[in-house]
């Protein structure tokens, strides 16, 4: 994801580094002077801190909405969820999901896209409803292809 931001949206990358640096009470130049692998390691370590949850959520959402539009659109298409053609839902989210359609989406998309990125998207989508979607929660718990660790 960090590579994608550096290649496609440097402003988000710079903003994330700046925000994380200020949270850690260091200047952004401290991070920017590091080699790229060191920058990524520092960013990853900093994002794991509880105080960085909000910026982590924003970076993750920005990446999914800009870098994984095809996956998001295909997911919405399979589940019959109206979207803007780029994966951003238009209108109300459904109150429940069709389990058969969810199974179809998982079967198709886990083979086309990086399973870890798809799994992260499922987790994010699941958070869009208070308490999550029981259908997604059950799928995440039962399907070994959807394990992050």
What does this structure look like?
By secondary structure, this protein is an all-alpha fold. It has 2 domains: 2-66, no CATH class; 69-146, no CATH class. It contains 9 helices and no strands. The protein has helices at residues 2-8, 10-23, 28-32, 36-47, 53-67, 69-79, 99-112, 115-126, 134-142. Helix 1 (2-8) packs across helix 2 and helix 6 runs antiparallel to helix 7. It is elongated. The relative contact order is 0.10. The model has no long low-confidence stretch (mean pLDDT 93).
Notable features of this structure?
2 domains; 149 residues; mainly alpha
Short structural description:
With 149 residues, this protein is an all-alpha fold.
Task: Give the helix/strand layout.
Elements: H1 2-8, H2 10-23, H3 28-32, H4 36-47, H5 53-67, H6 69-79, H7 99-112, H8 115-126, H9 134-142
The SSE string, one letter per element, is HHHHHHHHH
Rg value? 17 Å
The total beta strand count reads 0
Q: Could you list the spans in which at least 5 consecutive residues all have pLDDT below 50?
A: none
Mean pLDDT: 93
Shape: elongated
Number of helices, counting only DSSP H or I runs of 4 residues or more: 9
User: What separation lies between the terminal Cα atoms?
Assistant: 18 Å
Approximately how much beta-strand content do the residues carry?
under 5%
**Computed structural class:** mainly alpha
Please outline the major beta sheet.
Answer: none
The overall number of domains is 2
Percent of residues in helical segments?
55-70%
